[in-house]
Amino acid sequence: MSSRTSRSAAAVIAVVAATTFLATFNETFLNVALTPMMHDLGVGAGTIGWVTTAYMLAAAIMAPVTGFLYRSVRTHRLLLCVLGLPLAGTVLGALAPNVVVLVARVVQALGTGMVVPIGMNLTLAVSAPERLGTTMGVVSAMTTLGPSFGPIVAGAVLRLGDWHLLFVLFAVLVAAAWVAALVCVG
User: To 10 degrees, what angle do helices 45-72 and 3-29 make?
Assistant: First the structure.
């Protein structure tokens, strides 16, 4: 593999690792804010529980859909669209004055549920055979680190502001990942 190809593969793997981290980070990121959200939105525990349940159901449904879309849409375009969904859902969630936040989480999940399968396919496509174990290990590690760091980061952010700030922070992170995917994944 040439040096240029190696740098390109490394850039793609870095984007895949970052987007995989963000997708799985988002699974647990909002959970520590459910009680403040419940009070702020004036809803009960049963209603606010759907913020998490609906997110996980939508993400799970999208994983098998990814196979069809991966064969039907160019990878670069698919990744940008997939990252656009959590960005749109995050902006909607940041502005949500009521339980529209539930809809926002579903929109986020429609995209984040597809990030990991797309990332694994990209990793397999660009990795040199002798580096495949390492690159798959790095990307797989992000699927574990993301949900581990979600509550920690969210707890720190909630000390600075309310639950809307979590959405704002995540929007910035996803926008940065979208730009990186635009530039590095071709």
Answer: 160
